[in-house]
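Hmm, what's this shape?
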Amino acid sequence: VRGGSLAQTQRDTLLEEMTDDVSRLVLKNNASQAQAISLEEIRSEYRVGDHRRFIADLEDGGIIDRELEFLPDDDAIASRMNETGKALSRPELSVLVSYAKMELKRSFCMPNLVTGQYRFDLLSSAFPDALVSRYKDEVESHQLADEIVATQLANEIVNYMGITFVHRLRKSTGASEAQIAHAWIFCREVFGVRDLWRELGDTQADIPERTQLELLEKFRRMIRRGARWYVKNLVEQSDLDSDIDAFAKDIQALRRDVGSILSDRQLSRFKARKSELEQCNVSEQLATVCASVDYGFALLSVVDVARTHSTPVECVARIYFEAARRLKVNDVHYRLTSYDVNDQWEALAREVNLDELNSIGREITSNIISLTESNACSNDEALEEWLNVNANAVKQWMKLMEEMESTRRYSFALFAVAIRALAQLSSST
């Protein structure tokens, strides 16, 4: 209006036309936040330590007053867990959601946190489509653009990934908020997060609510691991647009056709899980993606190796999963992911061990691919040659695996020994 491109009467008409669009934006955000609180309720049953540390850090920083916000102290939280198995109520979790968003907005409010199309997508998501389509330049040059981007990104991360996603990742990796923001956008685009959430939340699908929430929490776990991988492997030399372009297409193609690259045992589990989901009214296509969630994180390393060696990603994927089967790495992974953790230190130890296991799998796969290049042999021949060259080390490793399978008492000490032995095997080539 001040620029003269829109008369007052036109402004009033446009505002009236956008009433329903504004209502939809508000309701969409409210629904996303309600879903996020429901997911936090599930997490509070087994990861209460994350919430407790988040509150403590806010309190230590003078950001929150427990008494003023009617939040329980540590003793009350422990008592609730013993009595009911739930530490925090929905109203209390709602308070934490608000603080998480406020703190992230403050951290994200900087020039050029995100650039290019991803910045515009965040900025335009705050406005009705009719306004963006007619006044794109004005939206881009908005005097509060940085603040709007920060607000939208904070809302998005907390709604999708929960209260403690950034807090936990920053603590475990030392990454900055800006680096974690890039890691989130990378995972969001590469794994198609928004489409998955939308399909799972489709009210027409009639998927049981508990099934929806359990699947969403599994995707959250995969994305947390993916974000850790990005921070450790790509963020220092990161070009976000290039990284997404390099990974998204291959990752999504592999996930759609995951049945063709898994080992026999993995394929059996995948088919059983897919069948279970289809019985819960999940569509076949969505069930395929959901059933493969446990393997999604590994595909990042598969694509990375394929890029490094300029090898078709399907070939690398088959070698990765077949090598894991032959060496029984899948068994270690299964034991780790199904191991119940008792506190934040064990949770961190599990994450570190899973990261290391994936890195070793990447190194072994890369070594095998190198044999196909130097000896001009097939994938199967290269795998057999690698196993033969490292026969003694492989024999020792398989003996350790037999001992591991014979025990019924798993611990992080046992996992550490196994992963160390596997690392020595991968470096013996």
Q: What stands out?
A: The mean pLDDT is 88. Residues 32 and 103 are 19 Å apart (CA to CA). Residues 344-375 form the longest helix (32 residues). The radius of gyration is 24 Å.
